[in-house]
Design goal:
The chain has helices at 5-23, 30-44, 69-73, 108-117; strands spanning 60-68, 93-98, 101-106, 122-130. The protein has 132 residues and is an alpha+beta fold.
Length: 132
Amino acid sequence: MTSDPAENAEQFRAVCQQIHEKHGRRSRSPEASLNRMVQKYFGDHHGHVPRPPELTPENTCVARETRSKLEFAKMAFDLHTGQQPSGDSGHSIIIARYGGADYLFDGNKRCRYWHKHGDTGPHEAYVLIVRA
């Protein structure tokens, strides 16, 4: 985690761009793509958790954490999607740290794949630390 606002803003934009490339629409900005996913995620999966505010570089610290892939895999939802998950896309998984808990925000398929195949190698994740 950086205390430099400019560096934090740059990392925030990198997270937004990653989400936008994987899940966004051309008509939305990268930041709008991230916020749409956050609102949908907390509405769909965590109805008991209040939705976080709109994420901005000012209210969200971006950290990078490296853990064992199996440790990250423990965070994945066990949902059958009918799609074959792939091992590594080259992207960091994304975790939202909000309200005192960590939520796997992007990377469920990869985590389930790592769990299924017992992959214990290291992986770096973006962690969005939301200041409510």
